[in-house]
């Protein structure tokens, strides 16, 4: 029967974006460790090889963050009032249904993305930067040091430090410092001091440069230098933008919002996807949904998308390894390519890290998450299609999540299934246009790694 209540020719209004009221911004972060059937193995002190304690970690990270890092029993951790107030500057971030992308692919799948690129610094990193700077100020810290790759984390921390009246010193991976000059300007605009790593300003940097004079830098070298500066400077703590448990904890604000927003859309994801550097945006997006898998057996697939040139999840080894080049960090039980691994110069600087977070590594071992590796060119093709259809130019890192989502959506064409796919758009690419330039001019390459290259850094 014809519906006579609507004038003929009227188009159906489809809801495109789902936003939460300010008072619905989460009040707690979700600590998945409390719900994990197999707890992650402990981090070990590099000297004594005994499990790290809060007392041992506090001089480096501060007390509250160290407590969060080792907390295995509290499922919910309150977001401090001051942090929530700053979240209001840009949260909630939109959950968006990618109708145009679905149409371009011709897929019956429903594709949603959680748009963290709307944050003032352009990525999800700010969610943890604000929290880390807040705790630092509260505990009397006056200086923070950190590492950064493409500069997303450095930019977020520089801003957060400024808000809380803290001096920030950032070691940026040298190749990115040169490839992405505007990120350096952003950090400097927020008042941070930026040094390309490896540099001559630390013993670790000098050692690396003596051995390899034209070392291009890696997150591993930058972490060593930032840690060394923190340990040799008064009232100075070290911040980290990924990998550690407390970073991913802060990022669960993404998934907790997305959960409510998916409810508004009347759907629940069959597949949750995030790109993978150290695991913070992936974990932050996936864990809130995974709690229903752990508690109630809800079947959802969780896919971490890493670059084929830095494949620690798909081709690395699970073992204890250092988080940095010089071996200053605690030993972490994780999937790793070896702490001396230097990834090729792909444009997704934020994904060029040799290891994976401790929680995610355990979850991968327990087969609660899956991992895929994406070649660089496929990632940019996906990013360009996303730009054409949704009008947003994604960060090169985020392109890996989009490519993985497209792979899944294409499978649905074959099977006819209307799977609900949710991925996180971790950042925009407006400061990464040199990467798109190389892609558009055909200069971009896929960097395949041989088994021997992978083995080399894992046998010491
Ligand atoms: C840093 C970064 C990543 C990778 O880090 P994770 O901790 O794995 O999330 C991904 N996307 C963007 C935009 C980043 O800045």
Structure characterization notes:
The chain is α/β, with parallel strands linked by helices and 460 residues long. The chain has a domain at 91-122 and 250-459: Rossmann fold, CATH 3.40.50.1100. Helices cover 41% and strands 16% of the residues. The chain has helices at residues 54-61, 63-70, 81-87, 99-105, 126-138, 152-163, 174-179, 181-189, 203-211, 219-231, 245-264, 280-296, 312-315, 358-365, 376-390, 396-415, 433-440, 451-456; strands at residues 17-18, 28-30, 76-78, 95-97, 110-115, 143-148, 167-173, 193-197, 236-238, 271-275, 301-307, 317-322, 331-336, 370-374, 420-425. Helix 3 packs antiparallel against helix 5 (126-138), helix 5 (126-138) runs parallel beside helix 6 (152-163) and helix 11 packs across helix 12 (280-296). The chain is globular and about 70 Å long. Pyridoxal-5'-phosphate binds at residues 123, 125, 152-153, 242, 275-282, 350-351, 395, 397-398, 426-427. It catalyses: (1S,2R)-1-C-(indol-3-yl)glycerol 3-phosphate + L-serine = D-glyceraldehyde 3-phosphate + L-tryptophan + H2O. InterPro entries: Trp_synth_b-like, Trp_synth_b_CS, Trp_synth_beta/beta-like, TrpB-like_PALP, TrpB-like_PALP_sf. Residues 89-427 form the Tryptophan synthase beta chain-like PALP domain.
């Amino acid at each position: 029967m014809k519906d006579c209540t609507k004038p003929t020719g009227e188009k159906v209004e489809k809801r495109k974006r789902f936003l939460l009221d300010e008072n619905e911004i989460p009040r707690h972060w979700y600590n998945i460790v409390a719900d994990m059937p197999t707890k992650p193995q402990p981090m070990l002190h590099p000297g004594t090889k005994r499990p790290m304690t809060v007392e041992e970690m506090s001089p480096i990270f501060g007390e509250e963050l160290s407590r969060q890092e080792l907390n295995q029993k509290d499922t919910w951790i309150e977001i401090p009032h001051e942090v929530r107030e700053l979240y209001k500057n840009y949260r909630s971030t939109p959950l968006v249904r990618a109708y145009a992308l679905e149409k371009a692919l011709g897929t019956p799948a429903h594709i949603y993305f959680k748009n963290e690129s709307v944050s003032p610094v352009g990525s999800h990193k700010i969610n943890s930067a604000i929290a880390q700077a807040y705790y630092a100020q509260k505990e009397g810290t006056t200086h923070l040091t950190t590492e950064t790759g493409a500069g997303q984390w450095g930019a977020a921390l520089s801003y957060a430090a400024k808000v809380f009246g803290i001096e920030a010193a950032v070691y940026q991976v040298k190749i990115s410092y040169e490839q992405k000059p505007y990120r350096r300007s952003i950090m400097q605009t927020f008042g941070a001091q930026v040094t390309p790593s490896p540099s001559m300003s630390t013993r670790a940097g000098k050692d690396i440069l003596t051995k390899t004079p034209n070392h291009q830098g890696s997150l591993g070298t930058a972490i060593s230098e930032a840690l060394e500066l923190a340990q040799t400077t008064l009232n100075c703590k070290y911040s980290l933008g990924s990998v550690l448990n407390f970073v991913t904890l802060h990022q669960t604000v993404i998934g907790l919002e997305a959960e409510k927003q998916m409810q508004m859309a009347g759907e629940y994801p069959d597949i949750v996807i995030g790109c993978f550097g150290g695991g913070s945006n992936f974990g932050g997006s996936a864990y809130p949904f995974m709690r229903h898998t752990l508690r109630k057996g809800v079947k959802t697939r969780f896919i971490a998308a890493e670059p084929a040139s830095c494949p620690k999840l798909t081709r690395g080894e699970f073992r204890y390894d250092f988080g940095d080049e010089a071996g200053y960090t605690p030993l972490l039980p994780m999937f790793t390519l070896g702490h001396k691994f230097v990834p090729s110069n792909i444009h997704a600087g934020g994904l060029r890290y040799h290891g994976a977070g401790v929680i995610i590594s355990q979850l991968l071992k327990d087969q609660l998450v899956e991992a895929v590796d994406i070649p660089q060119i496929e990632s940019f093709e996906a990013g360009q299609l996303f730009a054409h259809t949704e009008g947003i130019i994604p960060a090169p890192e985020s392109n890996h999540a989009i490519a993985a989502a497209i792979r899944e959506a294409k499978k649905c064409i074959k099977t006819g299934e209307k799977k609900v796919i949710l991925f996180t758009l971790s950042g925009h690419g407006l400061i990464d246009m040199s990467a798109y330039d190389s892609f558009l001019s055909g200069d971009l390459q896929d960097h395949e790694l041989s088994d021997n290259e992978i083995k080399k850094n894992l046998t010491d």
